[in-house]
Description:
This protein is mostly helical. It has two domains: 4-63, 434 Repressor (Amino-terminal Domain) (Orthogonal Bundle), CATH 1.10.260; 79-166, no CATH class. The chain contains nine helices and no strands. The chain has helices at residues 4-14, 19-26, 30-37, 45-55, 59-63, 79-91, 101-120, 130-142, 145-166. Helix 2 (19-26) packs across helix 4. The protein is elongated and about 60 Å long. The termini are far apart.
Amino acid sequence: xxxxxxxxLLWRLHRSLSQExxxxxxxxxxxxLSSIERGKRSVTLSTIRSLANALxxxxxxxxxxxxxxxxxxxxxxxxxxxxxxxxxxxxxxxxKDPSEHQIYDLLKQVxxxxxxxxxxxxxxxxxxxxxxxxxxxxxxxxxxxxxxNSLIARSVEQAEIKWxxxx
Length: 167
């Protein structure tokens, strides 16, 4: 589950709104919205309702940490599915199963800089981009920590195998 502030950020981006636009719609100061998104400010029930109305979502969606396009992957993501997604990320070929495609896209964005380092055998990892940070946020909202750790470990393992095979 993600924090309230992270969820507000994801919904704002999903609705293609700037902080200024959302703050105006919710009738709250923009600096307050910024603090909420960063988790630096507590919110009242009134603020939750204002933000939910401005984002056109039920207040419970924001409070419960349900991001846009929310699906429950926490319990039904099998070991075989994780292997397929990890292999797909390393090979750069989307999985055939449409239900795995969203996780593939997010994991690919999160791991892109790390996988480039493994492929190029660099010692330093490049800094993550804003896009990969957003993908990480979505991935955290959709999958359990154990699933994410397993997907990352399997992807790195697949990349190392591919690197050895390519030598």
